[in-house]
Amino acid sequence: MRPPVATVTIHRVEDGRGVRAEDLLVTEEPLEIRLGFGQLDDRREVRLSVTMRTPGHDEELVLGFLLSEGIVTGAAQVLRVEQCANVKEEERGNVVRAELHPSLDLDPDRWQRNFYTTSSCGVCGKSSIEAVHAQCGRSITPWGPVDPAVLTTLPDRMRAAQTVFTHTGGIHAAALFDPKGRLLLLREDVGRHNAVDKVIGAAHRAGLALTASQLLVSGRAGFELVQKCVVAGIPLMAAVGAPSSLAVQLARDGGLTLVGFLRGGRFNLYAGGA
Question: What is the reported pLDDT for 125?
């Protein structure tokens, strides 16, 4: 497993004078996700997507991706997720195959979109916004009134648990909390959507109830993150940055409580929470 950080030699300039120094950078590498599906005596493979991610928790990332994209509706539909051994040497550690349950009716033409997900956008390559909306057909149980005394403590609790960010300053985080603000789990990744998928996958593996949890993300609240929360059934999502107009619209349509600009003891409530 490749480490989440890499050491590089840089030329640091301070007060007009340059010196050689060592710096830590967050690791970013491609991960190819493949699916194995069909009856046990007739297994087939489809190459689903490539995402730029920080190595680590790849199995959780894949499971969360399958759940948040609506490809599977429960972790039981995924038999196992494992690294592919029969690949080129330069691909080793960066190709993962998820084996789906034989009972799952998968239409490869529907899901094989041949899209390339960058580290800054989880919607890239989807054929249309309507295709994304189609995955958000469920309504989630409303969170109810938000508790400012709890909500405003979450950013500091998330930051205290961000080990890779402490060393690099260049990585996103997603943290899952219970209603009282206790940290349940946290994942970091160069892609904010990957961090959310890792949290969703880890929660399903640990048997945590996403429907009774609140999610905090670093950065902005983009449409793709709101989509993942709605599909996964997470009732409250908060972000330290701003939401987009489409994210707010989807949150309101899906029954998600959406909080933005959660920092410095203040926040804006964009959807739900009444």
Answer: 39
With 0-12 CB in 10 A as exposed, 13-18 as middle and 19+ as buried, what is 178? middle
How many residues does the structure list for the chain? Answer: 274
The single residue of 84, 121, 136, 229 carrying the catalytic annotation is 121
pLDDT band at 1 (very low <50, low <70, confident <90, very high): low
DSSP code, position 172? E
Domain ranges of the chain: 29-127, 148-271
How far is residue 56's CA from residue 52's CA, in Å, rounded to a whole number? 12
pTM equals 0.86
Name residue 245's amino acid: S
- Known catalytic residue: 121? yes
> Is a pLDDT exceeding 60 seen at residue 150?
yes
- The β-bridge relationship of strands 44-53 and 115-117 is parallel
Ramachandran area for residue 74 (φ above 0: left; ψ -120 to 50: alpha; else beta): beta
Res 124: pLDDT: 47
Contact status, residue 153 vs residue 171, Cβ threshold 8 Å: no
Alpha-helical segments (H) within the chain = 58-68, 108-111, 129-133, 148-151, 154-160, 163-168, 192-206, 223-232, 245-254
- Which CATH code for domain 29-127? 3.10.20.10
User: How is domain 148-271 classified at the CATH fold level?
Assistant: Cytidine Deaminase; domain 2 (3.40.140)
- Return the structure tokens found at 129: 């916004």
Identify the residue with better confidence: 120 or 214.
214
